[in-house]
Specification:
heterodimer, A: 394 residues, alpha/beta, nine-stranded mixed beta sheet, two-stranded antiparallel sheet, 14 helices, B: 135 residues, 1 helix, 8 strands, globular
């Protein structure tokens, strides 16, 4: 289906509730991943002014809790619609697209989208990968053709792209650092951010230890415990609820080709977002120039630069220069990850990016509020470069 | 010789055939017998022309470094004693790319487009991995 044929999705659904838990490291949450997600879900429903049994659809994050478990705990007696989008960190934003489709089609009235984990105190992502190859995107391909040669985890896969970008376009370590520094700066204004009170300079960034070159420690996202959740409903229902609705103007998702193997892509920088972004903007009927801020899935610094290019905020190869000079900081032309992102707030699997976008569009972002924010973009990135994007408005 | 403790491929199906050729010190990839397109990793059908007919065609083994990463902190327990090490993507003359490692080169000697040629490393009696050295 063409993007034009999908414009009937524009503004059909709204985010009406957001919730989150505390984000922690150290001793960890002391709760199960399910309990964390329930806590965030309860807060999102309270925020929306909905009762638990108003929920009739749940879109769980892959491999965490099932819709059935979540529904049983929440007292959701009429679970009409439930599905999981298998796109790793791109799943929460892709779930906004699915939620919008579901409410527009009448398949669901109130959709709960939770995500959360003990990413610090539980088994780290890399340990899961070491013990259970089925959890690697690409499955047997990664086991048989990557792992024997030392490629085991996301920063290694993606740093292959980062180095190639540096070679082709002259992207520099200082430009990667500019992303990390902007996220850290924003975290100083976010009471929930794990890195609040720990500002970062370019010197700090450059001196941080190499993990998998060109990625240093401060190019890599945090590992934290915590959860977040959002509630989506139709635009008609949203208007009857107490909160200012945030409209899903457009949303789309996509996969690179081939999706299950990184190295044999003819165009190594073409990812899911390359396909999804123009579709989402066409549905929304706006352009990148209309966007006041963006919450970009920042698993690693280069992925932010790469997604800015593939979304069309700048041309291919210009992302390095784009992030310099404060352009992506609050007060700049396009503030990014105003909450601090995965790099400096917490790793909530991309869900906290949606929560932050909603807060910005409601004018609830406090010290870090983007003045008069009307339109915001949220992206997700997962697996070997799956991508999702939502364009939201107040 | 000490026991080899790093992860090994599972030798089954087309992957088993790929590594069986490596054990004979031949780097072969699938090539579509209808449109002659080379491919890697092993696939059931040609994504270009749709044919399910293919052969294991011998690669020249010559290629160039496409990109690499240098792992300084092991992200898998089996590689703890091996850091720093480079995992390298090589683009073969036939156009396919493969993840491998260079056997005669330290990470700081690597350059994009550096010419390389295949070399085989029998890591266990069953498994031989295709590695590369400077051409």
């Amino acid at each position: 289906m063409t993007a034009a044929a999908r414009t009937n999705l524009r503004d059909r659904a709204c985010i009406v509730g957001v919730g989150q838990t505390a984000f922690t490291r150290g001793d960890g949450s002391g709760k199960s991943a399910l309990a964390l997600q329930l806590e965030a879900s309860v807060r999102a429903l309270e925020d929306a002014g909905l009762r638990h049994d108003d929920v009739d659809a749940i879109l769980p994050f892959p491999n965490l809790a099932t819709a059935e478990e979540l529904a049983a705990n929440l007292g959701v007696q009429n679970l009409r619609f439930a599905t999981t989008v298998w796109m790793g960190g791109a799943a929460p934003v892709a779930s906004l697209e699915v939620a919008a489709i579901a409410v527009a089609a009448g398949a669901a009235d109130h959709v709960l989208i939770p995500a959360g984990w003990n990413g610090y105190s539980g088994r780290r992502a890399r340990e899961t990968i070491a013990e259970q190859t089925s959890s690697i995107p690409g499955g047997a391909i990664a086991r048989d053709f990557y792992l024997p040669y030392g490629l085991a985890a996301p920063p290694q896969w993606y740093s292959l792209m980062a180095r190639r970008h540096m070679h082709e376009f002259g992207t520099t370590p200082a430009q990667l650092g500019a992303v990390a520094i902007a996220m850290r700066k924003h975290a100083q204004m976010n009471p929930a951010a794990v890195m609040r009170g720990k500002p970062m300079t370019l010197d700090d960034y450059i001196k941080s230890p190499m993990i998998t070159a060109p990625y240093r420690l401060f190019d890599c996202c945090l590992e934290t415990d915590g959860a977040a959740a959002v509630v989506v409903t139709s635009a008609e229902r949203a208007r009857d609820l107490g909160k200012q609705p945030v409209y899903i103007m457009g949303a789309a998702s996509g996969r690179p080709y081939p999706a299950d193997e990184i190295t044999n892509r003819r165009d190594i920088f073409k990812t899911g977002l390359t396909i999804a972004a123009p579709e989402a903007f066409a549905i929304a009927g706006v352009s990148t120039a209309d966007v006041d801020f963006a919450e970009i899935y920042d698993c690693f610094t280069f992925e932010v630069i790469q997604q800015l290019e593939e979304t069309g905020f700048c041309a291919r190869g210009e992302g390095g220069a784009f992030v310099e000079g404060g352009r992506i900081e609050l007060g700049g032309e396009l503030p990014l990850n105003t909450h601090g992102g995965l790099l400096s707030e917490a790793h909530v699997l991309g869900m906290s990016h949606i929560v932050e976008a909603v807060r910005q569009l409601r004018g609830d972002a406090g010290e870090r509020q983007v003045p008069d924010a009307e339109i915001g973009v949220v992206t997700g990135w997962g697996d070997f470069g799956d991508g999702s994007i939502a364009i939201l408005r107040r | 010789m000490s026991e080899y403790t790093k992860p090994l491929p599972v030798l089954q199906g087309m992957t088993g055939e790929f590594y069986a050729w490596c054990k004979q010190r031949e780097l072969r990839f699938q090539r579509c017998t209808q449109c002659e397109a080379w491919r890697h990793v092993p696939r059931e059908m040609c994504a270009g022309c749709g044919s399910m007919a293919w052969e294991w065609a011998r690669s020249s083994g010559r290629g160039r470094v496409f990109t690499w990463t240098v792992t300084a902190v092991a992200l898998h327990p089996a590689f703890k004693g091996a850091t720093p090490y480079a995992s390298v993507v090589v683009e073969l003359e036939e156009g396919v790319r493969i993840v491998s490692q260079l056997i005669d080169c330290t990470p700081d000697e690597l350059e994009i487009d550096m010419p390389v040629t295949v070399e085989f490393e029998a890591v266990t009696p069953e498994v031989t991995l295709p590695k590369f050295k400077r051409a």
